[in-house]
Amino acid sequence: MPPIPNGVPMSFYLGLSAILFVIGVAGFVFRRNIITVFMCIELMLNAVNLSFVTFANYHKQVSGHIFTFFVMVVAAAEAAVGLAIILTVFKNRSTLNIDEVDSLKN
Amino acid sequence: MVDLFFFAIFATVAVLCAINVVVQRHPISSALSLVGVMASLAVLYLLLGGEFIAMAQIIVYAGAVMVLFVFVIMLLNSGTEVRRGRSWMATIFGIPALLGLLGLLGVFLVRWFPDSPVVKFGDFTGGTAEKIGYALFTGYLLPFEVTSVLILIAILGAVVLARKELD
User: Fold this and answer.
1) Which one of A20, B41, B91, B161 has the fewest CB atoms closer than 10 angstroms to its CB?
2) What's the burial of B35, exposed, middle or buried (CB within 10 Å: 0-12/13-18/19+)?
3) Is A102 exposed, middle or buried (0-12, 13-18, 19+ CB in 10 A)?
4) CA distance B104 to B42
5) B35-38 long-range CB contacts below 8 Å, 24 or more apart?
């Protein structure tokens, strides 16, 4: 049994990021509620942010943190616009099920 | 040792809350679980030396974005998701595809990080607000200013989309 390292191996952080990303993809694919799907997108963005911060630590550079900052800004803007779109969809179709919002299909 | 302890606790909390986001049927339960994921990720950022990013994570994500989500869930008064017969294709091919994606990510991780270095708390101090502010206003000034235009467009878009019809 190897000795317990003094600190956390970097691959643990990256593995956690991969696991969170895959869970987000699972929710995005399997869930039908439009708000939950949107939350899973936020989950995926968070998983990628964890990778950015880990690599910033690896390279000892601040660029990864700057990227995380911009991802957060874009995610906040996207949440505002996306939730406004969800409100409009609900006003017009009175449903939140993504299977029933298919007016572009025909 | 202490690092590993905190990592184990908060990584477990993050994964459990993330699974809870996906399996809960009511959107408000998913939203509260997502707050748990974001808070534990903030602690992990702190362990990685990202003090500013950890605080921004709590303020922007757990504060602003999730409040927006909860407001919309409240406004729409959405109940539990109706369970419908889902396509057998999704069940048969979806889960192996996801496991394949996870395995692919794991393979890349092992290939590109054969001997991953060890992160110790406190050996990277470049994540303070001072350092990030300096980088943001020197090397990344143009993206920073373009971001303000993006936020302006997002505000206008949200207002236009969500306003009441004035007729």
Assistant:
1) B91
2) buried
3) exposed
4) 26
5) B35/B62, B35/B66, B37/A20, B37/A43, B37/A46, B38/A46, B38/B62, B38/B66
- Taking only residues 58 to 77 of chain A, the set having a beta carbon closer than 8 angstroms to any beta carbon of chain B reads 58, 60-63, 65-66, 68-70, 72-77
**Per-residue pLDDT tens digits for B65-91:** 999 999 999 888 776 766 666 667 777
- In B101-146 the beta strands, taken as DSSP E runs, fall at 118-119
pLDDT value for B75: 87
Among B61, B78, B84, the residue with its CB nearest the CB of A72 is B61
Structure tokens at B112: 């590109």
B55 touches chain A (CB under 8 A): no
- Total residues found in chain A within this entry: 106
Q: Retrieve residue B45's tokens.
A: 């950022």
State the Cα–Cα distance between residues B114 and B117, nearest whole angstrom. Answer: 9
Lookup: tokens for A34: 């439009």
pTM: 0.89
CA–CA separation, A54 and B29 (whole Å): 29
B2-79+89-127: CATH topology is Four Helix Bundle (Hemerythrin (Met), subunit A) (1.20.120)
Outline where A1-106 has alpha helix (H): 10-30, 34-59, 63-93
How far does CA B68 lie from the centroid of its chain?
15
- Joined tokens for residue B165: 């019809």
The ipTM of this complex is: 0.89
